[in-house]
Amino acid sequence: MELDPFQKDALAEFGNIGAAHAATSLSQMLMSPIEMTVPEVQAIDIANLHNYINNEITAMVVFQIQGEVADGGYVVVSMPRETVIQLTNQMLGTTDADRDINEMDQSAAIEIGNIMISAFLDATAELLGIVMLPSPPALAIDMAHAAFESIVAQVAGDVNDVLIFNTELTSEAPPVYGSIYMLPNAELTQQLFLMLERMMEPLS
């Protein structure tokens, strides 16, 4: 999908509003000030997704988009191992960073993903004037390519484009990185861009 400058600005606004709300919820959970920015938004063809992800061990928390846009596609929080462990340590007040992802980290990843996506969808849906709700989360811990292959196999035929919101979280600890991948079906993609254009009209 080729975005024009107007669409890029609209998507960046969309992502930053959602990220700001997600950061507020995460701050409350971790009891520590956190800021989340979306320095880059990309819209790509799902067939080219493998070119935009690395192949490191990653925790992916997957949600189906429900609400007024029933079966609207999927939204995925992707966090590399270092991010999951750092956030778990921050939650529990521990310091062991040199370890593999364990059951404690898996529970933390689901909780963090759930809070982030609930806030992200709530804020962006309010902005657009529709209801978007996340399904119960599913977690995959795997090499990023392998995890996404499974997701893509499930949505093949319904989803053509992927919106990637690359996020950066900063707090008192060193910054951590992750991404939110939105895989809307074709109908929701059309609705999103139509609503974003209407939202940005007063600014143009």
TrEMBL record:
It comes from Methanoculleus chikugoensis. This is Chemotaxis protein CheC. Residues 6-41, 106-139 form the CheC-like protein domain. InterPro entries: CheC (IPR007597), CheZ_family_phosphatases (IPR050992). Pfam families: CheC. Keywords: Chemotaxis, Hydrolase.
